[in-house]
Amino acid sequence: MFTSTNKLIDLIPYFKKKLGVLYSDREVDNLFYWVCEDQFELQKFQVKMGDKRLTESELLTVRTIVKRLEQKEPIQYILGTTEFYNCKIKVDENTLIPRPETEELVDWVLDNVSKEQAVLDIGTGSGCIPIALKKAIDSLTVSGLDISAKAIAMAKESAELNDVKVDFIQMDILNPDLEGLKMYDVIISNPPYVLESDKSQMNENVLSYEPHLALFVADHEPLLFYIAIAKIGLTQLNPGGLLFFEIHENFGKETIEMLEKLGYQNIELREDMQGKDRMIRCCRG
């Protein structure tokens, strides 16, 4: 039995009993209130002060969510959405869950773009980057490119959900049809950069549920996607255009050297809030 009262607030002990082995008390509390907001449109203070009682159907829904959490499935996939840079982004097993570090990348891009510019996000996945940029500056012309048709379909739904216009393109950047691309003032990418050898250090919920196609790259080709995207930038960036990357913390030096060899200028490496080398900005000459 969940609770003798069927009150929403009285479900907290149930959450802690079922999930306490996997998560800290604080994490369990966060999961509980996240579910409350998503399923019942109630903020934390409303749950605490209110007298919301659940129907049998609602109780069953909550129990199903908890069962999935017990299997270490990410809450974002269970609920189908996540928050990213003041946007609600739809996610499923075909898209990576947006990370806070990528919000920092969006911040940096917004500090460098001007109204009316054309921006392309390569490897867009959920579409979180172009959607956030377009929502912040509506006058931008924004596109997102990805190899996965399923990811693009989900990104289109998120763009509609946030009431923004983003052009999504399906293309394999390792075998690109550049005739299908126009010229851009800014190109951004957060491509796969996690090494296959890093899998042993990763959480089970990431390995079991998030798409490996969007995560991993072979150990012997750590810059595979960066090289391909940088070469695309040489032809598709307007002169003086900017290229932004989110990168693997251990490959900042190597990425800079690669960009220098290709002729990019004014290369800047920036740390994230955790002090890790995480982002690069450079300029096409």
As a whole number of angstroms, the C-alpha radius of gyration is: 21 Å
Could you give the count of β-strands?
A: 11
Strand content: 15-25%
- The number of helices is 11
Sum up the overall morphology in one term.
elongated
Order of helices and strands: HHHHHEEHEHEHEEEHEHEHEE
Distance between the termini: 67 Å
Give, in spatial order, the strands making up the sheet with the most strands. Answer: 5-4-3-6-9-11-10
Largest sheet: 7 strands, mixed
Structural class: alpha/beta
- Please tell me the overall pLDDT: 91
Helix content: 25-40%
| Poorly predicted sequence stretches spanning 5 or more consecutive residues | none
Provide key terms for this protein.
elongated, two-stranded antiparallel ribbon, 20% strand, 11 helices, single chain, alpha/beta, 285 residues
What does this structure look like?
By secondary structure, the protein is α/β, with parallel strands linked by helices. It has 11 helices and 11 strands. The strands form 3 sheets. Strands 5-4-3-6-9-11-10 form a 7-stranded mixed β-sheet, sandwiched between helices. Strands 1-2 form a two-stranded antiparallel ribbon. Helix 1 packs across helix 2 and helix 6 (100-110) crosses helix 7. The longest helix has 16 residues, at 25-40. It is elongated, with a radius of gyration of 21 Å. The N and C termini lie far apart (67 Å). 35% of the residues are buried.
Brief characterization of the structure:
This protein is α/β, with parallel strands linked by helices. 39% of the residues lie in helices and 20% in strands.
